[in-house]
Amino acid sequence: RLRANQTYNLSNVKYITVSKWCESWLKELYNKDAKYIPNGLEREMFPIKERNFDSGKIKILVEGNCDDEIKNVDESFKIVSMLDPEKYEVYFLSYKGTPKAWYRVDKFLHKVPYERVSEIYHSCDILLKSSILESFSYPPLEMMATGGFAVVRPNDGNVEYLRDGENCLFYDGNDLSTAVDAIERIASDAQLRARLLENALKTADSRSWENFKQDIIDTYTK
Question: From the CB of residue 185, how many other CB atoms can be counted at a distance below 10 Å?
Fold first, then answer.
């Protein structure tokens, strides 16, 4: 960590970041003016698929490495344990780490190649994401891009593009029943789903790499 911190104090170095909170962090702690380039999405890799909430079980997707403390995957499975197993099916996607014995998992997806991740999103209806800290949180954006829904614990890495009640629903990490309530609201309220979907797709479109291509070129060449 000390060696990493030393790299933030180098002279004659241009600092670039993909998150607004990291831009502020570099300025406040190291007095470095970083160039901010928004993180983007390869939009064509995440085509839209309509979800059906009127038949069959609703599929909840939990994503993250359960061995990584800041991913906070245990919290997602505490929430899952409060959901009706007759109504909800649980998918767990993790590149590293395997389900703990107490996890309720109906389908475990391990080390899925990135080019196939959109297939996983398509097979699920609601992403439950409980990370405590991330530089930039991709899964909610990717899920939203495919036409799915996201219930998320807010952190610095996702509030940059997520808006509670507009393109997703937030829950309170100090009261996990709020996550259950959010999932139930999405499952039962078609008008809410329509609003979230419309704004989620706008958000995903606005984050296409095509929108930032010239900024990236200018940053590295000027």
Answer: 15
Q: Which two tokens stand for residue 164?
A: 């509670």
Alpha-carbon distance of 105 to 80, in angstroms, equals: 9
142 φ, ψ to 5°? -65, -45
Q: What is the pLDDT of residues 146-173, one digit of tens each?
A: 999 999 999 999 999 999 999 999 999 9
The structure's pTM equals 0.95
**Number of alpha helices (DSSP H) and beta strands (DSSP E) in the chain:** 8, 8
The yes-or-no verdict on residue 222 having pLDDT over 90 is no
Question: With the CA atoms of 117, 154, 157 and 45 taken in that order, what torsion angle do they form, in degrees rounded to the nearest 10?
Answer: 20
Residue 63 has pLDDT above 90, yes or no: yes
Instruction: Using alpha carbons, select from 135, 115, 117, 112 the residue that is nearest to residue 127.
Output: 117
C-alpha closest to that of 151 among 164, 138, 142, 161? 164
Q: How many angstroms separate the Cα of 77 from the Cα of each of 56, 128, 200?
A: 21, 9, 25
**What pLDDT is recorded for position 41?**
95
**Cβ contacts of 169 within 8 Å, gap of 6 or more:** 149, 150, 151, 152, 182, 185, 186, 196
Q: Angle of helix 190-206 relative to helix 138-145, nearest 10 degrees? A: 110
Question: Which pLDDT band, with edges at 50, 70 and 90, does 55 fall under?
Answer: confident
